[in-house]
Design brief:
By secondary structure, this protein is of the alpha+beta class. The chain is 20% helix and 35% strand. It is built from 7 helices and 16 strands.
């Protein structure tokens, strides 16, 4: 089943084993368009919410990435990994026998708030113009600088003994750019056992959650997307324009108005259709991106 030329976001429940680019290729076929892109890469082992823009919505994706994300994850204590997840080369086991639940909760609490995090060696962070993972796979030694991320919530769930290892279920709500693999690695270091990620499921990106996500199989049977106007109202502060303002925005003119916030703000015509993103620049509102035409 293929769709028409509509524009919007497809909220995909990505399966394990596919890259984010694989999902984009599938959506291109299902949507009958080449103009498809995704926001917020998920590793092949990860599942869950992946936002895919179709047609004009591809231009909106870059403005949607600076948002909160939520995950359900499983950390295995007792072994480290070259990739900080189960797909890498594992270290020799370290005993977790003395690690108690209170120890895990106390260590997790130290990662709340603004923290400095060094992304994983095989992350997509660019070092001198090339992705870190590409440099590592080419045999290079990569030094990735730490950067500030925000962990809003880190909840320790069930703990399970698996042989000599200790598996810990985590729920994380964090800023965009936070690496859950790196968080698992650093928790393992803090507990003195080493640790790596064995399962990861993204449960939300901004206001979009698993409750509205569809699998690729479901999309093949019932194609659906969230239209541009709905996406804009859900993701940005909104302002409705009169006819004169609408005419100015349609051609990207500045507006002599106070948006009430720095922006970006989503602007809508009198019929409720999304026109543009504007931001406040001194006394005027200026275009960030115009989506008319």
């Amino acid at each position: 089943m293929t769709a028409g030329p509509e524009s919007g976001l497809v909220v995909v429940d990505k399966p394990a084993g596919l890259t984010s680019h694989d999902v984009v290729a599938r959506v291109r076929r299902l949507g009958g368009t080449r103009k498809v892109g995704h926001a917020g890469t998920l590793d092949p082992m990860a599942t869950g919410v992946l936002l895919v823009g179709v047609n004009r919505a591809t231009r909106l994706l870059g403005h949607l990435t600076l948002t909160e994300k939520a995950y359900a994850a499983t950390l295995r204590l007792g072994t480290s990994s070259s990739t900080d997840d189960a797909e890498g080369v594992l270290s020799a086991p370290t005993s977790t026998q003395d690690v108690r639940e209170d120890d895990v909760r106390a260590a997790a609490a130290t990662f709340l708030g603004e923290i400095q995090q060094v992304p994983s060696q095989v992350s997509a962070v660019k070092i001198d113009g090339r992705r870190a993972y590409a440099r590592v796979r080419a045999g290079e030694t990569v030094e990735i600088p730490a950067r500030e991320v925000v962990v809003h919530q880190l909840v320790v769930g069930d703990l399970r003994r698996e042989g000599g290892a200790l598996d810990v279920d985590l729920r994380v709500r964090c800023s965009s750019g936070t690496y859950i693999r790196a968080l698992a690695r650093d928790l393992g270091v803090a507990l003195g056992t080493g640790g790596h990620l064995t399962a990861l499921r993204r449960t939300a990106v901004g206001p979009f959650g698993l409750d509205e996500a569809a699998t690729l199989e479901e999309l093949a049977q019932d194609w659906s997307l969230c239209g541009m106007s709905e996406v804009a109202r859900r993701c940005f502060p909104a302002r409705d324009l009169d006819e004169a303002e609408t005419a100015d925005v349609a051609v990207g003119r500045k507006l002599d108005v106070d948006l009430g916030t720095a922006g970006p703000v989503a602007l809508f015509d009198p019929f409720g259709d999304f026109l543009a993103l504007y931001e406040q620049r001194d006394a005027v509102a200026a275009p960030v991106a115009v989506f008319t035409g």
